[in-house]
User: What shape does this take?
Amino acid sequence: MKLSRRVFLGTALGGGAAALAVGAGMLAPLPPGEGLLAFSTREFTTLQAITDALFPRDVLGVGPVDVGVAQKTDAYAANMFPRERMLLKLMMRLLEKRPHLEGLGGFSTLPVDQRVTLLRRWEDEGGLFGLGVSGVRVLCAMFFFGDAKVQAAVGWGMGCDDVRPRPEGVPG
Assistant: This one.
């Protein structure tokens, strides 16, 4: 079948316009969801799915929901510079959509073990996406491990709390 220049250009321009529309929709700012300060409801759901995968409750007996990691991250994001907040929100949307490229559902709909596997793989792949995943992990870890309940669960204390008897001749 011979393809005319007019049909080719029309198809290319139509496809390009469609791709641009999808991309523009992905980049369009979403307002905060009800009761949220920075994230849309969808972005917040993705954030909660990420924190559940990063900090499973069964490891320490305390999980991200118990200490409000997603809520603290939302409050922190609300105080970021607009550009950085927009990039963090965009990262939430990209994390939610990327599993679709592999024939999976949205990130937040996947089982926890599958989310863990994907996050590890994406971070190990490196590049900009891997850096984004690492950045989200570090940001969430700041609020998870900064909580007193988590610190108590891991046995961490502030200051010099070594109560072991000192060997003879060692000042205490």
Remarks:
- Residues 12-21 have pLDDT under 50 and may be disordered.
- The chain has nine helices and no strands.
